[in-house]
Amino acid sequence: MKKSIINKYAIPFIQWYTIMILLTIAIDYFLHRFHIVLNGSYLGFAGTFVIFLSFFYSLKKRKMIKSGSPKKLLNLHEYLSWLGSLMLLVHAGIHFNAILPWLAILMLLLTVASGLVGKFLLKKSNQDLKQKKQLLIADGMDKEAADKKLFMDSIVVDLMKKWRIIHMPITLLLAIFSIIHIVTIIMFSI
């Protein structure tokens, strides 16, 4: 039985995002309940480090590192980014006392959402294009004619691959706000 688009793509997106938010609330509650709130501060360092590790995929993609499978590094990027984001959300807690943490957390949530949207939309569009092409070939159309018939669809898929145009600036803003946050914490703690 074929899954609907909602079951195949929208629900996993909502699940990943909801689990991250619910885990954040649960971990924050646990830390407060057992009076180990200070440990939440250390999650900022750990979460930032984990997110930095996730960028091995970007380095591989830009040919700055040679080792590693792009597919495995992409999966690692997705999971480490999600885990690091969870840690940073717990670090921030539900008690913001300045505008900078609010902006950083907003950018973090937008970055995760845009990453998940890109992941599921791009996967969906690539799969649909391949399925249409296979159906046309199975119905007797040659490969070249199928490519011509699906020309507009392939342009749409290529445009879908450009979702990073949105994801990258949001990620950059997250990095800028995070660096400003770290610098101000260091400045005011000295």
In short:
The chain is built from eight helices and no strands. It is mostly helical and 190 residues long.
Helices, by number, come to: 8
The tally of strands reads: 0
Mean pLDDT comes to 84
Question: Low-confidence stretches at least 5 residues in length (pLDDT < 50)?
Answer: none
SSE class? mainly alpha
Q: Roughly how much helix do the residues carry, as a percent range?
A: over 70%
Report on the biggest sheet: none
Q: Write the element-wise H/E pattern from the N-terminal end onward.
A: HHHHHHHH
Instruction: Estimate what percentage of residues fall within beta strands.
Output: under 5%
Question: What keywords describe this structure?
Answer:
single chain; 190 residues; mainly alpha; 2 domains; 0% strand
Your description of this structure?
By secondary structure, this protein is an all-alpha fold. The protein has helices spanning 5-33, 38-54, 56-61, 70-92, 99-138, 143-149, 151-160, 164-189. It is elongated and about 70 Å long.
How is the secondary structure organized here?
Blueprint: H1 5-33, H2 38-54, H3 56-61, H4 70-92, H5 99-138, H6 143-149, H7 151-160, H8 164-189
Helix pairs in contact: 1-4, 1-5, 2-4, 4-5, 5-7, 5-8
